[in-house]
Structure formats: structure tokens, C-alpha cells
Amino acid sequence: MTVREVAPLVGETLDPQRARSTVFAHYSIPAYDEGRGPVLEPGSAIKSNKTGFPRGAVLFSKLNPRISRVWHVDDEQEARRICSTEFLPLHPDTTRCDGRYLAWMLRSPDFVRSIAGPSAATKSRERVKPSDVLGGKIPVPLLGEQRRIADLLDAAMTNVARARGALKRQIDDCGRLRFALTEEALGGRAIATDDKNDQPGAGWVPLSSVARLESGHTPSRKRPEWWGGDVPWLALPDIRAVDGTTIGRTIENTNELGLANSSARLLPKATVVLSRTASVGFVAVMGRPMATSQDFVNWVPGPTLRSWYLAYALIGARDYLRGLSSGAVHKTIYMPTLKSLHVRLASLEEQDGMVEQIRTSHSFTDEARAAIETQSADLDTLPTSLLSAAFRGEI
Fold it and tell me: Where is the Type I restriction modification DNA specificity domain (predicted)?
């Protein structure tokens, strides 16, 4: 049957500004995307026309139908329900169609594929025509069978959500274990400011005494001839992807002209970089000579300090370093604070042993994380498979 045969389009367009003191239950696209319920707000706060609809309606988003936004509204909300005009409110004929079943069928990839082709493109978005949704076909078995299928899918999707949550927690646990093993191998936090009352013990030296501190700079964007070339230039968009690794390439390159006409410096291979603004606390080691933006502080280790010992010391102290940042909008670790950092210095032999221990432990946590991510990817295919099977009458 077509959707319009079992769930006609309902609702009335209204201007909330005409009922400024009325409290509405506003079902919006952002609220759906964020997994929230409706926002309760007065008409005076709503600046555009909305669509009023009754309880029991199924809201189908016209925006980019390949992104499933189907909202079955069957709550106890007392405020008047309104939704974005980007939603199509469909009201199931309860003598023929169960609302939960309808919502699941509208989410099925089979239905989406059947209507996504004719969707019309706008400048920045894609919309499906209401007539295509209403004319779309769905299987409509007897009500008892619909409810059985809806019950099955409700339970299955709840279990999928729980499993996703469990896998996410396991991935987070792998990250926490990685940091704990790093700190354990280092014998505790190995980075502190010059006030080390919370980290007693011998071996602390000013970091600047064993590594040359260097800042970064951005060549002028108004001079395109200073960009491009063979000098990698590390910026914030690079750092998350290379955190904890050796950097071999960057998104942007500068050149000799860019270096000559700015404060950017070509730093040697094995320089240790730390992001100090906005995305604070990410660490990497240069795998070749390169320059950085001013968003980084860089250390060129001297003969008594291994690059990767310093990198792991900074990674192990990430939370501590983030605690040293300040700023109302974008957090920043300012240079005076960075200049005051001390490192707990071990012998080169001990540093090498710690680095090897950390790398060995990281290999185990990385293998565990990869296995969990494979399970997560497999799990992500399950909802689509279940919905397709339900649409074809195979469950």
C-alpha cells in the first residue's frame, strides 16, 4: 500500500508569534539529531512558521532522506505540539496501521531508496517531495503482525543501542588504560612546572636545559607565493590525526620564501611538538624537517634527552598540561608557563627502556581497540539489515 492510504498528511501551518504567551512543544530537526525530546518554549521565542500536529503522528523529514529522521510522537506532552516545516506529519489510521510499525518502515533502507531518487536539490540541501513520500509503498500486514514486528524491532534496536554503548565504553577504557600504562612505565608523571611540590623526587631539571624551545608562525596568507613547496607546515587541522605518532606529512606546505619572510622556523627531524591552543595537549614527533604554526610549542631535544621519552612524558601529562591552560573562549597554555616546565630526567638507557615498555604496552591496547572497533563496525550494519528484512517480510 502507499503511505497516504494508511497515514495521510495532517497538520496546520501556524505562526507562533501570533500566540506569544502560549507554550509549545517544539519538535525540531536539531532536537532530533541530538537525541533530545521537544523543546518547551513560548510562541514569542519561535521566529518562523511551524506545523501543528496531533499526538500519534509520525514525523518524516524532507531534508536529505538518505539521513533517516523519523520521529514517532506518542508522548504524554500537554503543550500544543508543533514541528519544523521540514517535517511531514503523517497520522496513521489506527484501524489499519500501527504508528511504531509505520515509523520503522519509513526508516527502512528499501523505502528510503524508493523515494530518494526523485528528491529535489536546493543550493545547499536536498529535499524529498511530499508526494513522493505519500506515494511510497510499504508492506501493510494485519495489525497483530505489525505490532509483533514493531515489538521485535523495538527490542532489537534497544539491544543494539546498549551494545554500542558498551563498545564505546570499552574503547574509552582502552584509551584510559593506554595513558595509565604510559604513566606507569614513566614511574609517574614526568612533567611539572617549576613548583613540583606534588611530584617529589630527584632528577627534575628545567625542560629548557635539555631541549631547545621553539615556537611556530604562520606565513602571510596574503602572499600565495609563500605557500606550496616542499616544507611541511604543521597546523591544528593536522594534529588530532597524528597524535602520538611520527609526522611525515602535513595538509599544507610552505616554502623557502615563506620561511625567509616570516618567523616560521624549519625545525629538525625528531623535534617534539605540543599543541598549546584550542586543541590543547596533542603530541607528535617530526619524522622530517618541518615548520609549525604558532599553535604549537616545539622542543628540539639535546644529547641527554630522547625525543620519544619527552613525547611520552608529555602524553602521560596531558590532563595536567590541559589544567595549565586558560582562556574564556579558546584554552591556551601561554609561553611563560611552558618555559617553566620541568622534566624528570632519567639516563639514556633508562629512557630507552621506558620507551620500549610503553610501545609494547601500547601494541596490546591498540590491538584490543582495533578488535572492538571491528565489532562496532559489524554492529553498525545490524539495524539496516533488520529493517530491510522487516520490510521484505522476513522476520
Answer: 206-357
| CA–CA distance, 350 with 211 (Å, rounded to integer) | 18
CATH superfamily to which 185-347 belongs: DNA methylase specificity domains (3.90.220.20)
Q: Answer yes or no: are the C-beta atoms of 214 and 299 closer than 8 Å.
A: yes
Q: Which of 260, 274, 177, 185 is nearest to 219 (CA)?
A: 260
- Bridge-based pairing of strands 23-27 and 246-247 is unpaired
**Grid cell digits, residue 347:** 639516563
Is there a contact between 254 and 223 (Cβ–Cβ < 8 Å)? no
Rg (CA), the chain: 29
C-alpha cell at 7: 497515514
Q: Please report the pLDDT score of residue 194 as a whole number.
A: 76
CATH code reported for the domain at 3-140: 3.90.220.20
Residue ranges of domains in the chain: 3-140, 185-347
Q: Furthest-apart CA pair in the chain: how many Å?
A: 82
Give pLDDT < 50 ranges for the chain.
120-124
What is the 3-class SS of 283-340, one letter each residue?
EEEECCCEEECCCEEEEEECCCCCHHHHHHHHHHCHHHHHHCCECCCCCECCHHHHHC
Q: What is the model's pTM?
A: 0.76
All three cell numbers of 290, joined, read 618541518
Q: Within 10 Å of residue 334's Cβ, how many Cβ atoms?
A: 14
Q: What is the pLDDT of residue 124?
A: 47
